[in-house]
Specification:
Elements (H helix, E strand, L loop, with lengths): L5 H26 L1 H11 L4 E5 L12 H5 L5 H10 L6 E5 L1 H8 L12 E6 L5 E7 L12 H11 L17 H14 L13 H10 L8 H15 L7 H14 L1 E5 L3 E4 L1 H9 L3 H8 L8 H15 L4 H7 L1 H17 L5 H81 L7 H20 L1
Antiparallel strand pairs: 1-2, 3-4, 5-6
């Protein structure tokens, strides 16, 4: 038997080692098994406690949209002003050393964030007097979300997020998408017109629109900051990330920014978006989407397309929702085709949804034209009413002038009446001795008048 050369044995050993190493890396990329142990152990140290007096170890959020809207970013200023006014801190949060170090590294503070905040006023008996919440319409449980909406969101944004095959998987990173995005980014330096697909997962996107300045990714360092924080946040409840991944889907649908609607203000979440942008009731849409029809269904098609349009508008919400609805309609139709091709919705339903939305757009355009005509007619009526008002004002002024003249004439008549009475009394004081004398005086007066006139 011929002996195998030593070099071949060493080569085979190295090859087997490399194959094993590659397999281990591939398994880790899919399952995040080793990563989960380290990140879960680190995340468990991200704690805080309420301690008496001012805290000697506390950090405040930065200038992210979420932190600014809830007032967290202004806490240092509020505390300084209260201190100047004579107030003292009775209790304050003290974070763990590990969380402080994480903040020093530049990551966002990982904790369980709430999707909905607001103000509730109760009376002495605990009866609710007033409540204001933002967002107003949210999903309270993952099971409340229509399955078609979850499937559509994941197909568009993060297809592997809810994969149950690997419970310990890190949801913040999809290595295949990230590698493709990096490769496309490199090619874009040569081909400047090339469209670069995004590599962000839903957890990373949430970190972006909540905590990055202005809700944007300004640099590669900011992207790494989002990914690092999202990875730690995913393991706050332990190495099994599947429950946290479901919460991520719910958080995204509840809080995704959808620009600012007229007469409503800032819009966050699909629920408020349906109401603010389309005037649709959140409960009605969920009830319709709860059960997918086998064929055509006008109500289902309309509800699906309106909800889907908000999901695809997230990339440029101000442009699609406020400036160019036609572009949003076309983009939504494209995604309906993708969902139908993937077998997530029936083809007939996708075609009907496109037709239904076109009819809605036409109806909105007709209503807009009608409102313009009503506005023009109202403007003409307002002008006529203004002229009538001006004429009435002039008539009122004339009436007031006439009333003043009548009052003046009445006063003059009263004065003349008094003067006449005085004259009668004055003349009555004179007495004539004989009638002949009176006649002579009258004759003399008649004779003198012509002479005075001639002279």
């Amino acid at each position: 038997m011929r002996k195998i050369p030593r070099r071949i044995l060493i080569g085979l050993g190295v090859l087997l080692l490399l194959v094993g190493l590659v397999g281990l890396v591939a398994w880790e990329l899919l399952s995040s098994a080793l990563e989960a142990k380290y990140l879960a152990r680190t995340a468990q140290k991200m704690t805080w406690q309420i301690r008496p007096g001012p805290s000697d170890r506390i950090r405040f959020p930065g200038q992210g949209p979420y932190d600014m809207r809830l007032g967290y970013s202004k806490l240092p200023d509020y505390l300084a002003r209260l201190d100047k006014a004579g107030w003292q801190i009775d209790q304050q949060a003290k974070i763990s050393i590990q969380m402080a170090r994480l903040d020093d590294l530049g990551l966002f503070l990982p904790y369980h964030e709430k999707d909905q905040a607001g103000f509730t006023l109760l009376d002495t008996d605990g009866v609710k007097l007033y409540q204001g919440l933002h967002p107003s319409r949210v999903y309270g449980r993952f099971d409340d979300i229509p399955k078609v909406l979850v499937d559509a969101l994941l197909y568009i944004e993060n297809r592997e997020l809810l994969t149950e095959e690997f419970p310990t998987r890190n949801p913040a990173v999809e290595w295949d998408r990230l590698a493709q995005a990096l490769m496309e980014k490199g090619i874009s330096f040569i081909d400047t017109n090339r469209n670069v697909p995004g590599g962000s997962t839903l957890p990373t996107q949430i970190e972006k629109y909540r905590h990055s300045p202005e809700g944007l990714t300004g640099s590669m360092g900011e992207k790494l900051r989002q990914m690092g924080t999202a990875s730690l946040r995913a393991y706050l409840d332990g190495p099994n990330t599947l429950p946290m991944r479901r919460k991520t889907v719910m958080a995204y649908l509840n809080t995704v920014p959808l620009a600012a609607a007229p007469r409503y203000g800032e819009v966050n979440g699909i629920g408020d978006g349906l109401w603010a942008w389309y005037g649709l009731d959140f409960s009605d849409v969920n009830r319709i989407l709860a059960k997918m029809p086998r064929g055509r269904d006008a109500a289902y098609a309309s509800a699906l397309k309106h909800a889907l349009s908000l999901v695809v508008a997230e990339r440029r919400p101000s442009y699609y929702l406020a400036a160019n609805r036609k572009a949003l309609d076309a983009l939504t139709d494209d995604h309906l085709d993708l969902l139908a091709n993937a077998g997530l919705i029936p083809r007939a339903l996708a075609d009907q949804a496109g037709t239904t939305m076109a009819e809605v757009v036409d109806a909105i355009r007709r209503v807009t034209d009608l409102m313009g005509e009503i506005s023009a007619a109202s403007s003409e009526q307002s002008s006529g009413v203004a002229q009538i008002g001006q004429a009435v004002t002039q008539m009122d002024q004339a009436t007031q002038q006439n009333s003043a003249l009548v009052e003046e004439m009445a006063a003059a008549a009263s004065s003349l009446r008094g003067q006449a009475g005085d004259l009668v009394r004055t003349v009555g004081a004179f007495k004539l001795e004989a009638a002949s004398g009176h006649q002579h005086a009258a004759v003399e007066l008649q004779r003198r008048q012509p002479m005075l006139a001639a002279g």
